[in-house]
């Protein structure tokens, strides 16, 4: 996985860091809404990344064994 798809696992950390820089001062804890926002974004990006890894593995397997994948 090269290119932009390799950044997907890092994106939730980048988003969380940006949100913490924008919305928090020293010593403040995040609100429940911020936690839900970061959590949902993290979950969605992780699910997309897992799906892309799965599909990439299937494509690679199909290329390496074309006769066996037909049935």
What features would you describe in this structure?
This protein is mainly α. It has one domain (3-69). It contains three helices and no strands. The protein has helices at residues 11-23, 32-64, 66-69. Helix 1 runs antiparallel to helix 2. The longest helix is centred in the last third of the chain and has 33 residues, at 32-64. It is rod-shaped. The chain crosses the membrane at residues 7-24, 36-54. Keywords: Membrane, Transmembrane, Transmembrane helix.
Number of helices: 3
For the biggest sheet, the summary is: none
Give me the count of strands.
0
- Count up the domains: 1
List the secondary-structure elements in sequence, H or E.
HHH
Q: Alpha-carbon distance between the termini?
A: 27 Å
Shape: rod-shaped
The fraction of residues assigned to DSSP E strands is under 5%
- The value of Rg in angstroms is 18 Å
- Estimate the helix proportion, in percent: over 70%
Task: Quote the average pLDDT.
Answer: 74
Uncertain runs: none
Structural class by SSE content: mainly alpha
Keywords: Membrane, Transmembrane, Transmembrane helix
What attributes characterize this protein structure?
71 residues, mainly alpha, rod-shaped, 70% helix, 0% strand, 3 helices
Structure summary:
With 71 residues, the chain is an all-alpha fold. The chain has 3 helices and no strands.
């Amino acid at each position: 996985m090269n290119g932009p798809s390799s950044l997907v696992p890092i994106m939730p950390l980048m988003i969380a860091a940006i949100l913490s820089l924008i919305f928090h001062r020293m010593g403040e804890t995040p609100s429940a809404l911020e936690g839900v926002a970061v959590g949902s974004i993290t979950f969605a990006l992780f699910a997309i990344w897992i799906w892309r890894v799965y599909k990439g593995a299937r494509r690679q397997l199909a290329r390496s064994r074309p006769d066996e994948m037909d049935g």
